Amino acid sequence: MTLTSGRFISHEYDRMVVRFSMHDGTREISCAISTSAMDDLERGPQVKPEQREAQFTRLQDRIEARAASKYRATEFEGTPPGIVLRGIDFRP
C-alpha cells in the first residue's frame, strides 16, 4: 500500500529530530527526520527551534517521498518500528 501524508508531531530539541507520521491505510507510521538533514535540504543556515514546523512544511513533499521509499524497502528502525531519515538518505 502507498503511504499518505500524516501529521507534524513535534520538534524534539534534545534529540535534534522532527517527528511526524504517515499513513498506510488506517495504520499510522511513526517517522522522524534529523534537523541537520532538513537544513541540508534547504542549503541554508540552521533555523531556530521555533521555525522547525514551518521548515518541515516547506520540505514536506521531499521528506514524505523519501520516507515512503524507505517504507517500501522495509528500512525500519527502533521500537516500535518506524522510519528515520538522515542527511545521507537524500544524497544521490
Question: What does this protein look like?
Answer:
Strand 1 (3-12) and strand 2 form a beta hairpin. 20% of the residues are buried. The longest helix has 21 residues, at 52-72. The protein has helices at 35-42, 52-72, and strands at residues 3-12, 17-24, 27-34, 83-85. The protein has 92 residues and is of the alpha+beta class. The chain is 32% helix and 32% strand. The mean pLDDT is 94. The chain has a 4-stranded mixed beta sheet with strand order 1-2-3-4.
List keywords for this structure.
2 helices; globular; 92 residues; alpha+beta; four-stranded mixed sheet
Q: Point out poorly predicted stretches.
A: none
Distance between the termini: 25 Å
- The fraction of residues assigned to DSSP E strands is 25-35%
Largest sheet: 4 strands, mixed
**Which whole number gives the mean pLDDT?**
94
Q: What's the helix count?
A: 2
Gross morphology is globular
Which percent bin holds the helix content?
25-40%
Placed side by side, the strands forming the largest sheet appear as: 1-2-3-4
